[in-house]
Specification:
There is one protein chain. This protein is of the alpha/beta class. Among the domains are: about 1-50 and about 195-245 and about 310-360, Rossmann fold, CATH 3.40.50.720; about 85-170, no CATH class. The protein is about 30% helix and about 20% strand. The protein contains 11 helices and 17 strands. The chain has helices spanning about 10-20, 65-70, 100-105, 115-125, 135-160, 170, 195-205, 235-240, 285-290, 315-330, 350-360, and strands spanning about 1-10, 30, 45, 50-55, 60, 75-80, 85-90, 90-95, 190, 210, 225-230, 250-260, 270, 280-285, 295-305, 310, 335. The strands form 4 sheets. A 7-stranded mixed sheet has the order 8-7-13-14-15-12-16. A 5-stranded parallel sheet has the order 10-2-1-11-17, covered by helices on one side. A hairpin with a 5-residue loop joins strand 3 and strand 4. Helix 1 (about 10-20) runs parallel beside helix 11 and helix 4 (about 115-125) packs across helix 5. It is globular and about 70 Å long.
Length: about 350
């Protein structure tokens, strides 16, 4: 059969593109190197019946009604506002840093936004220009808060000092003057009621979509006919690493199921000191709303090898990526879409929004 589109990768970018194009009569071949759809958002029930996110917590949030309405075609939702705590010297503090964090950490009794603004102003170090992930935080809230909550966590996550990383890494995390302890403040904060995998299954359940699993697309290129390609894998792999490998951070998970209803005080607890070596613990029942008398957690370790999770935003890596980007722009029949193909950190809703913009809503 001749396909209109060959789509490489069945994560958010590939799945949304496949659904939109198939709905307009295009024949789609979706090739996935893993054994499942959903990319890193894939979830499954473990042997204890707990719904877990196999590749770490994925929290859906967006300000885009268009994105929310689109995904609502494939799932019902469960209202969920994400909360994260940081463990420091045996105590738990709300993250992002807010008024509660400051009062608890420094024994203060601030009650207004203005008092917190004045406090930040009194401790911040003016840095100009803002060149890296240390500058952006120290410029906002000073060296002490940076060292307590950002320095070691960032080093564990990236194996680089914050001053070696783009300002965007720590700059994504807001600093608050109020007592809002939600991790996100988006208008739409929900989780797919039946999980992400069920949502992807409904999205891809179309007579014009054929899916092949456990397959590297390069192994079948000579055996199929197609018009255009949508590529969501690592851009350096597409070009056979001709300029060298783009570095990514990967993750390793240690899973544990515990015979108690609840393990920790929030869905995610960040470990912001040098020890332990893991960056965070996630308790998945918070995310899914499951009621069970046992619970499953994952300890998350950042590492250099394994599946690519996070592009590493340094100046050198950006330069290398731009070489690949120039090569990609020469190809008229290939779309490079998503976090790995564009070597950029994207939230899930942003990827969906981009795909809707390119391939029609």
């Amino acid at each position: 059969m001749k396909y209109d589109y060959l789509i490489v990768g069945a994560g958010f970018a590939g799945a949304v593109a496949a659904e939109r194009l198939a709905s307009r009569g295009n024949k789609i071949l979706l090739v996935e190197k893993r054994s499942h759809i959903g990319g890193n958002a894939y979830d499954e029930y473990n042997e204890h019946g707990v719904l877990i996110h196999k590749y770490g917590p994925h929290i859906f949030h967006t300000n885009s009604k268009k994105v929310f309405d689109y995904l609502s075609r494939f799932t019902e939702w469960r209202f969920y506002e994400h909360r994260v705590l940081a463990k420091l010297n045996g105590k738990l503090y709300p993250i992002p840093i807010n008024r509660t964090t400051i009062n608890k950490l420094y024994g203060k009794n601030f009650t207004t936004d203005k008092e917190i603004e004045e406090f930040y102003e009194s401790v911040r170090e003016k840095r100009h220009p803002i060149l890296n992930s240390e500058d952006i935080i120290v410029n906002q809230i000073g060296i002490d808060l940076f060292e307590k909550f950002f320095k070691f966590y960032t080093k564990k996550q990236w194996n680089l000092e914050p001053k070696e990383l783009s300002p965007a890494v720590t700059g994504r995390i807001p600093v608050r003057t109020n007592s809002d302890d939600r991790y996100f403040t988006d208008k739409f904060q929900f989780m797919p009621k039946d999980g992400y995998t069920k949502m992807f299954e409904r999205m891809l359940n179309h007579k014009n979509i054929e899916i092949i699993f456990n397959t590297d697309y390069k192994n079948i290129l000579n055996d199929i006919e197609f018009g255009k390609m949508i590529y969501t894998g690592p851009v350096d792999y597409f070009f056979d690493y001709k300029f060298g490998r783009l570095p990514y951070r990967s993750l390793k998970f240690e899973w544990e199921t515990i015979e108690q209803e609840k393990y920790q005080e929030a869905a995610v607890v960040n470990y912001v000191e040098p020890e332990p070596k893991y960056t965070r613990i996630t308790e998945y029942k918070y995310l899914t709303g499951q009621k069970k008398n046992l619970t499953t957690i994952s300890k998350e370790y950042s590492r250099q090898t394994g599946d690519p999770f996070y592009p590493i935003p340094t100046k050198e890596n950006k330069k290398l990526y731009l070489q690949y980007k120039r090569e990609a722009e020469k190809l008229k029949n290939v779309y490079f879409c998503g976090r790995l193909a564009e070597y950029k950190y994207y939230n899930m809703d942003v990827v969906v929004g981009k795909m809707l913009k390119i391939f029609g809503s």
